[in-house]
Specification:
The complex is a heterodimer. By secondary structure, chain A is an all-alpha fold. Chain A is 74% helix and 0% strand. Helix content of chain B is 70%, strand content 1%. Chain B has one domain: MetI-like fold. The chains are: A mainly alpha, B mainly alpha.
C-alpha cells in the first residue's frame, strides 16, 4: 500500500493534488498541535514557579526552572502509597485480564467446538446488559472482595470486546494448516494453544497487555466503590483530593515552614507534577505497540 | 457477535459450513480441554455478570440485607414512583439525555473526518507522528483529564483565561458545562477513534485510486467517492455501539466536573445512582433508578439503530 501511494506521488500530480497536499499537511499539523499543546503546557508548568504559570509566563518554556513540584510529589506519602497500589493493581489485573481473554478466545476460535455459539452469546450479552452499580456492588460485597485486590479485577470478568479482537485474530491470522497439521500429529488442544497460538499471536498479546494496563492504571471508579479502606486507593483516586478538591494533604502541610503563601504555592506546583507523574508511564509505553493497534483492530473489524 | 453483520457484508457468500461434521459425542470428547479452559471465565461471568442481573429484582423489593433478596418484601413500582416524584427527577432525565445525545452528535463525525484526511496524507513519517500524538490523550485517566480541565479553566490564571485575557469562571457556568464536557471528550478520544476507520480504509483497493486518478479525480473527490462510502458500514456500526452505551457514559467526568453552581445542567441520573446507592446505602431505590436508566438507553438504542438502518443498507443483529 505505502509503496503504491508513494508511486502515485511521483507522478506529475497536477496543481490540485499539490494544493490538497498542503491543505492536508496544514490540517493535520494544526490538529496535532491542538492535541499536544495542553499536555506540553502542563509539562512546562511542572518545571516552573506556579505563580509564573498563573501569570501567563510559561506558554512555551519554563519560568524560574524548579523541581520543587516533583520533590513534593515524591515526598508525599499518600501519593507514594497510591503509586504503589496502582502498580500492584495494574500488574495483577493485567495478568488476570490477558489470561482470561486468551483462555476464552482460544476455545471460541475453534470452529468445531460444540456449543460455541452459545458461549459466544453468553459472553457478548454482558457487553450490552449488566446488573448495574448496586446489584454488582452487592455481589462483590457478598463474595467478600471489598478492600481486597480482587475487587479491582474479578468483577470486570472477561473484557469481551478485547476477547473478540483476540478470537478473530486467532481465526484469521494464524494459518489453519498449522493447527490441522499439529492435530494430525496427535497434539492436544492445549498443546496447540501453548505451542502455536500463544507464540504466533505476539502482536495481539502486546495490544491486549497495553489495553489492560491502561485500563487498570487509569481506573479509579472501581476503587472509589470497592476500595474504601485506608491506604488502598490507587493513584488517580489519591490525586482526586489534590486535583479536584484542591486539598492540601497533611504530609504536605507538615513539610512547610514558610507559612500560608508557601503552602499555597506548593499545593499548586504539586498539581502539575502529579499529573505528569501519573500520566507518564502509559504515554511512554503505548508508542511501542502502536503499530499493532491497527492490525489488531483490523482483525477484529473485518470478521466480527 | 455484535460486528458479525459487518463481516457478512465484507465477505459475501462466505458459508462456514464445515463438511466434515463428526458425531457430537466424538467432538465433545476431542474438545474437553477447551471446556476446561472456558470453565474459569464462565464461572466468573456467571457470578459477577449474571449474578447482578439476577439481583436487579431488588428494584421491585424493599431490600434488607439481613433478609436477602428473596426474603425482602415485594413492593412493585414504589421505588420508581418515588424517583418520578422526586424534585429533580425531570432535570436529571433531561440532562442525561441531552449530554448523551449532544456528545454523540458532536463526537461521532470527528474521527471519521480525521481518518479521511490522515488516510490521504502522503508523507508517511508525518502521518505516523500525527497519529502517535492524536492517540496520546486516550491513555490518560479521566481523573487527570478533569484535573487538567480545572487548571486550564480556572478563573485566576487558567490557560484559557490567559489566552482570552479574561477571568471567567468557566467551570461554574451552567451554560458552558456541556461544551466543556463534549469538547474535552473530543480532544481525548477523537484521535483514538480514527484507528478503526484507518484500519477500514487500509483495505480499500488501491486500484480504485489509480482509476480515479486517471479519470482526473481530485483528492477531495477521491475521499468523497471512494473513501467515504467505504467507511459507511463501519461508521453505522460504531454509531450503534456508542448508542448502546449512551446513558452509561460520562459518570466519571460529570462527577469530577460537577460543582454546586453547574448542577442545573450537570445533575444526571448516573451521579444520583451513585449518591443514593453507595453514599446513601439506598440499595433498592438506587437499583430502580439504574434500571430506569437502562430502559431509557434501550429505547434510545432502538431509535438510533432504526435510523441508522434506514440510512444505510447494513443489517444488524
Amino acid at each position: 500500500m505505502s509503496a503504491q501511494t508513494k508511486a502515485l506521488g511521483k507522478k506529475p500530480g497536477g496543481l490540485s493534488d499539490k494544493a490538497s497536499d498542503v491543505v492536508l499537511v496544514v490540517l493535520s499539523v494544526v490538529v496535532m498541535l491542538l492535541v499536544a499543546y495542553p499536555l506540553y503546557y502542563i509539562l512546562v508548568a511542572s518545571f516552573s514557579d506556579p505563580y509564573d504559570v498563573y501569570a501567563g509566563k510559561t506558554f512555551l518554556l519554563p519560568s524560574q526552572f524548579t523541581l520543587d513540584g516533583y520533590k513534593a510529589v515524591f515526598s508525599d506519602d499518600s501519593i507514594l502509597i497510591g503509586y504503589w497500589n496502582s502498580i500492584k493493581y495494574t500488574v495483577v489485573g493485567t495478568i488476570f485480564s490477558v489470561v482470561m481473554i486468551y483462555i476464552t478466545a482460544y476455545p471460541l476460535s475453534n470452529p468445531d467446538l460444540p456449543g460455541r455459539k452459545f458461549f459466544n452469546i453468553f459472553f457478548v450479552i454482558t457487553m450490552y446488559f449488566g446488573g448495574g452499580l448496586i446489584p454488582t456492588y452487592l455481589v462483590v460485597r457478598d463474595t467478600g472482595l471489598i478492600n481486597t485486590i480482587f475487587a479491582m479485577f474479578l468483577p470486570g470478568g472477561v473484557a469481551v470486546s478485547n476477547m473478540i479482537i483476540a478470537r478473530n485474530y486467532f481465526e484469521t491470522s494464524i494459518p489453519k494448516e498449522l493447527k490441522e497439521a499439529a492435530e494430525i500429529d496427535g497434539a492436544s488442544k492445549l498443546r496447540i494453544f501453548w505451542d502455536i497460538i500463544i507464540p504466533l499471536s505476539r502482536p495481539i498479546m502486546a495490544v491486549m497487555v497495553v489495553f489492560s494496563m491502561v485500563a487498570y492504571w487509569n481506573d479509579w471508579f472501581t476503587a472509589l466503590i470497592y476500595m474504601t479502606g485506608e491506604g488502598r486507593a490507587p493513584l488517580p483516586l489519591v490525586l482526586r483530593n489534590i486535583l479536584i478538591a484542591s486539598e492540601t494533604s497533611a504530609s504536605q502541610a507538615s513539610m512547610i515552614s514558610g507559612g500560608y503563601a508557601e503552602l499555597n504555592k506548593l499545593t499548586e506546583s504539586i498539581k502539575f507534577g502529579s499529573i505528569i507523574v501519573a500520566a507518564a508511564p502509559m504515554l511512554i509505553i503505548y508508542p511501542f505497540v502502536q503499530k499493532y493497534f491497527e492490525q489488531g483492530f483490523m482483525a477484529g473489524a473485518v470478521k466480527g | 457477535m455484535s460486528n458479525a453483520p459487518a463481516a457478512a457484508k465484507a465477505k459475501p457468500g462466505k458459508t462456514p459450513a464445515p463438511a466434515h461434521r463428526k458425531p457430537l459425542k466424538l467432538r465433545l470428547k476431542e474438545n474437553w480441554q477447551l471446556y476446561l479452559l472456558l470453565l474459569i471465565p464462565v464461572v466468573i461471568t456467571i457470578v459477577y455478570k449474571y449474578g447482578p442481573m439476577y439481583g436487579i429484582q431488588i428494584a421491585f423489593r424493599d431490600f434488607k440485607a439481613s433478609r436477602g433478596i428473596w426474603g425482602s418484601e415485594w413492593v412493585g413500582f414504589e421505588w420508581f414512583e418515588r424517583f418520578f416524584s422526586s424534585p429533580n427527577c425531570g432535570r436529571m432525565i433531561v440532562n442525561t439525555v441531552l449530554i448523551s445525545l449532544y456528545s454523540l452528535l458532536w463526537s461521532f463525525p470527528v474521527p471519521i473526518i480525521l481518518a479521511l484526511a490522515l488516510n490521504q496524507l502522503r508523507f508517511h513519517k508525518l502521518k505516523r507522528v500525527v497519529q502517535t500524538v492524536l492517540y496520546a490523550p486516550h491513555f490518560i485517566s479521566t481523573m487527570i483529564i478533569c484535573g487538567m480541565l480545572r487548571i486550564f479553566l480556572s478563573p485566576s490564571g487558567g490557560l484559557l483565561n490567559l489566552l482570552l485575557g479574561t477571568s471567567i469562571d468557566f467551570i461554574n457556568q451552567s451554560s458552558l458545562f456541556r461544551t466543556i464536557y463534549i469538547a474535552s471528550g473530543i480532544w481525548q478520544e477523537a484521535g483514538w477513534g480514527t484507528i478503526i476507520y484507518l484500519a477500514t480504509l487500509s483495505s480499500v483497493d488501491t486500484a480504485l485510486y489509480e482509476a480515479a486518478k486517471v479519470d482526473g479525480a481530485s483528492v477531495f473527490q477521491r475521499i468523497l467517492h471512494i473513501d467515504l462510502p467505504a467507511l459507511v458500514p463501519m461508521a453505522v456500526l460504531q454509531l450503534i455501539l456508542s448508542a448502546s452505551n449512551l446513558m452509561n457514559v460520562g459518570f466519571e467526568k460529570i462527577y469530577l466536573l460537577q460543582t454546586d453552581l453547574n448542577k442545573p445542567v450537570s445533575d444526571t441520573i448516573a451521579v444520583y445512582v451513585y449518591e443514593q446507592g453507595i453514599l446513601g446505602a439506598e440499595y433498592s431505590y438506587s437499583t430502580a433508578i439504574g434500571l430506569f436508566n437502562t430502559a431509557v438507553n434501550i429505547v434510545l438504542l432502538i431509535i438510533v439503530s432504526r435510523i441508522a438502518k434506514k440510512a444505510s443498507d447494513v443489517q444488524f443483529v
